[in-house]
Design a protein that fits this description.
Elements (H helix, E strand, L loop, with lengths): L9 H25 L4 H37 L17 H36 L3 E6 L4 E4 L1 H7 L12 H4 L3 H13 L3 E9 L4 E12 L5 E10 L1 H37 L9 H29 L5 E5 H15 L4 E8 L3 E5 H18 L3 E11 L2 E8 L6 H4 L11 H6 L6 H11 L3 E6 L5 E8 L1
Parallel strand pairs: 7-9
Antiparallel strand pairs: 1-2, 1-5, 3-4, 4-5, 6-8, 9-10, 10-12, 11-12
Helix pairs in contact: 1-2, 2-3, 7-8, 8-13, 9-10, 10-13
The structure holds adenosine-5'-diphosphate (ADP).
Length: 458
């Protein structure tokens, strides 16, 4: 057999066999020389002993192969399988294994050190981040949270360890729902402005939860980053309160100016002719300012609402009411209303939704010609309700479409001022939709007709 090609540990076995053969031959020679006449009996005895010892050694050698395989996989390279057979080995198989294990031990220690270093960097990083961080596995068991999370959410609780369930560290159901949604849909989710009550105060947070993926894109868990938005929320509230107070304070004198102007108007025959125009202007501008402050007040009330009162809203009945009341405001215009409502009833805040449809309706009448066509449709698409409100008015040029929901944004200042709008109608619409967790977009070719597409959660 070519020993250079024999597969380790077989040449280990062959070496032993060779040594065995020498030993048994020596024993045989000693026996034959010391006890003559029993040559054949000794031959059988020594032959059997030799084969028995070889077979035993074969059985011992076999598991070594597996052991060597393991060692190779630890050290990451092959052991010297194909060495020439030498009678005396400076470095035998066991020495190779020992060296390999020593090498593996050094590598493992280095890897352990690297992991410990990485771990301490990660812990320092988590500790220094000013956001609250919480990670859970796919079964909602807590994997880790940072010290900031502990001080913000767990200060009132007994010391909690990781490994508990999500509900044991997070009391807020809305925030837990976000984690559940991410774990079931594998899609990142956000939630803004949820309330957290601690022993002494109420704070507001936003949360962004992202999935953690393992091998084969399997979801392993989710990690949530919280942001404390209490200051922002309080500032928003202060701003809304300020606008509400100012609007209220200004509306009172304006109403009185309007009242006196109306008295003057009724008595205008007693006044010089050149003052008639002034009275009309005072009246017109007072009305505009009252409308402006009404809209500002409405907007701040909507903004400051934490929750909307959801009830069943009959779209058909609502649009008919708006249509009927519009006749008094725009007596010269005729409206042809078409309703294609696959979903006749939706879940929404009735008052707010009335205001929303009313604003869209008024705009259609304000900016449309004498014969106005309005179409209202509703349908369910996947898990959403889609409502469209379209008119046959002059349309809105494309470049303005993304900005018309901003406060005081007007497409054509001179034209729009004549129509008596405040520039807040669509901002109010947008805020109402946002309070319903929905979205709105405007579509128009800028030549004829505008469509507003509202998407609400089903
Ligand atoms: P306003 O109260 O002045 O009507 P909005 O916020 O309601 O303000 O609308 C913003 C601008 O969008 C308006 O100035 C107008 O130019 C345009 N707009 C809104 N609705 C329509 C519509 N149905 N048709 C044409 N233009 C519209």
């Amino acid at each position: 057999m070519d020993s250079s090609r024999s597969h380790y540990p077989w040449y280990f076995f062959w070496r032993f066999t060779r040594l065995n053969l020498v030993l048994f031959l020596l024993i045989y020679a000693a026996l034959v020389l010391s006890v003559p006449g029993h040559t054949s009996a000794f031959s059988v005895l020594i032959g059997a002993g030799f084969f028995l010892s070889c077979f035993t050694f074969y059985l011992i050698t076999r598991p070594i192969k597996r052991l060597l395989g393991r060692v190779e996989s630890i050290i990451g390279h092959d052991l010297p399988f194909r060495e020439q057979l030498k009678l005396f080995y400076v470095k035998d198989e066991w020495a190779h294994i020992e060296a390999a294990l020593k090498d593996a031990d050094t590598k493992l220690r280095m890897q352990l050190k690297t992991i410990q270093d990485e771990n301490s960097k990660f812990t320092t990083l988590l500790g220094s981040i000013s956001n609250e961080i919480l990670a859970v596995d796919a079964n909602q068991n807590v994997l880790f949270f940072n010290p900031r999370f502990e001080s913000s959410f767990l200060a009132d609780k007994e010391k909690l360890q990781t490994g508990g369930k999500l509900w044991s560290v997070l009391d807020v159901a809305e925030a837990r729902d976000v984690f559940e949604t991410v774990l079931s849909t594998k899609v990142p989710q956000k939630l803004r402005g949820f309330k957290v009550k601690t022993q002494n105060e109420i704070r507001y947070y936003s949360i962004a939860v992202s999935p953690i993926f393992g091998e084969n894109a399997l979801i392993k868990g989710a990690v949530g980053v919280f942001s404390d938005i209490t200051e922002v929320k309080l500032t928003e509230q202060m701003r809304a309160d300020f606008v509400a107070n100012v609007s209220h304070e200004i509306r009172t004198p304006l109403t009185s100016i309007k009242g006196f102007s109306q008295v003057l108007k009724s008595q205008q025959s007693k006044l010089p002719l050149e003052l008639h125009d002034f009275i009309d202007r005072i009246l017109h501008n007072t009305e505009r300012m009252i409308a402006l402050f009404n809209d500002l007040l409405n907007l701040s009330v909507i903004e400051s609402k934490n929750q909307v009162e959801i009830t069943r809203v009959d779209l058909d009945r609502m649009i008919e009411q708006i249509h009927a009341s519009s006749r008094g405001i725009f007596p010269t215009k005729t409206v042809h209303l078409t309703c294609k409502l696959e979903i006749p009833e939706i879940q929404a805040d009735e008052k707010l939704f009335y205001q929303l449809l009313n604003n869209l309706f008024e705009n259609a009448l304000k900016y449309g010609s004498e014969k106005i066509e309005i179409t209202l449709t509703s349908q369910q698409v996947d898990q959403k309700i889609l409502i469209t409100f379209s008119d046959n008015g002059p349309g809105i040029p494309r470049e303005h479409l993304s900005r018309i929901f901003e406060r005081f944004y007007r497409v054509d200042h001179s034209r729009d001022r004549e129509t008596g709008g405040t520039g807040l109608g669509l901002a109010i619409v947008k805020h109402i939709i946002m309070k319903h967790q929905g979205e709105i977009e405007a579509m128009s070719d800028g030549v004829k007709g505008t469509s507003f597409r509202i998407t609400l959660p089903a």
